[in-house]
Specification:
Length: 128
Amino acid sequence: MPKAKQLTVSIENRPGTLASVGNALGNAKVNILAFLSIASGVEGHVQLVVDDVKKAEDVLEDAGFSYSEKDVLHIELPNRPGALGELARKLAAKNINITSGFATTVKASRKASVVLEVSDLDEASRLR
């Protein structure tokens, strides 16, 4: 299973902050492959998987955004009932815990894009 870098960007919980992150990356031609935005109170964060991590880091720094980086699984699953359960079962069989995850697909698409933070990334990346 492929590894990827996830960037977690700290943002304010107010209108326009996600637009600022998205526009800064878009203007630099960095494509966002997956994202999750979470906010509580006055603060929030955006978890991003992008096509060019180095360029994204440069853009975020230049725009004054604070961010951290973490290795995650970024995989495609078949867009069908039970696919996520099968993956989770394989990970559990190797005693690998899923600590965070998000996914998306488009109706009638054959694949879903899944991002998972796991307790043992090296072992998880070897699973098929």
